[in-house]
Design a protein that fits this description.
The structure is a single chain. The chain is an alpha+beta fold and 287 residues long. The chain has one domain (3-286). It is 71% helix and 6% strand. The chain contains eleven helices and five strands. 37% of the residues are buried. The model has no long low-confidence stretch (mean pLDDT 85).
């Protein structure tokens, strides 16, 4: 089967059925770091396959003489489609990044106006328990309400703050932003919504894993229950999101090295396949 066809089929599978299936494979959350690599590898492979299919078709038509007129037409059309896909990604990245950074900058400015500072945490005078972080390249904020300070026990508060610090250290906002870009760039039939939603769960599970290194799991679970009903502003990362999925993940305190290794291997294979399909024909042609 010609390489452009294989890459095109692979792009369709990685954009639709594969993310849909992965989003239903909830056991992946037992190994969240490996699962994150698999999601990132799948997304990168889908983009590479989509771009590679068009480029491969164009070069196949023009690589070896004689080149007929219809070959030029097909190559131009393939190149145009590839350029459109690349342009949509670039434009989506620009718009998403610009909007998120402007939104976060405005929110940080407003928090600085109305909140007091306590041990590096911004405290809002609010009756509902709230906890979230606002990431930023030049300055981030961890925001809690006064009700959070009075409602949570010291160990619970420590767990929540460590959860938010983990988000900021790992730059989970950039991971979420990448999947938001893909969701915005591609048509609705692409399962980027499923990918974005599952990655949102995974970053919360990863932050929980960081928090339970300081406090026990029951303490973190009780903090999640205390924060039930709260929500983070758009562009922020909140401690109360994905409670049911996180509670299920927290109940599993065993290590799963076999699953983690298998998932990492699968992520590498998924990314390697379109890479080889794109690169090898060009190397062969150069010879």
């Amino acid at each position: 089967m010609p390489t452009p066809v294989v890459l095109g089929v692979l792009a369709v599978l990685l954009a639709g059925p594969v993310p849909h299936a992965l989003s239903r494979w909830h056991r992946l959350r037992r190994t969240p770091a490996a699962a994150m690599l698999l999601w990132q590898g799948t997304a990168a492979a889908a983009v590479l396959a989509a771009l590679g299919a068009g480029l491969s078709l164009a070069t196949d038509r023009l690589w070896e003489p004689p080149v007929a007129g219809h070959d030029v037409v097909v190559a131009v059309l393939a190149g145009a489609v590839t350029a459109v896909v690349a342009a949509r990604l670039v434009l989506s990245g620009h718009r998403t990044g610009t909007e998120l950074r402007r939104m976060r900058r405005l929110h940080r400015d407003r928090v600085d106006l109305v909140a007091s500072r306590d041990a590096g945490v911004s405290v809002l005078e609010h009756d509902l328990p709230v906890a979230y972080c606002v990431p930023g390249m030049t300055g981030s904020r961890i925001v809690v309400s006064r009700s959070t300070l009075t409602t949570l026990a010291p160990a619970e508060l420590a767990a929540v703050l460590e959860h938010e610090r983990s988000h900021l250290r790992a730059r989970h906002d950039l991971v979420l932003e990448a999947f938001a870009v893909l969701h915005r760039a591609f048509p609705r039939w692409v399962a980027s919504g499923a990918a974005r939603d599952e990655v949102e769960v995974l970053v919360e599970v990863l932050a929980d894993r960081a928090a339970v290194r300081r406090v026990d799991r029951r303490t973190l679970l009780s903090a999640l229950l205390a924060l039930a009903g709260s929500s983070a502003p758009r562009g922020a990362l909140g401690s109360a999101g994905s409670r049911a999925a996180r509670a299920e993940a927290l109940r599993d305190d065993r290590r799963h090295p076999v699953q983690a290794g298998a998932v990492v291997g699968l992520a590498a294979a998924v990314l390697a396949l379109p890479t080889l399909l794109v690169v090898l024909p060009w190397l062969t042609g150069l010879r």
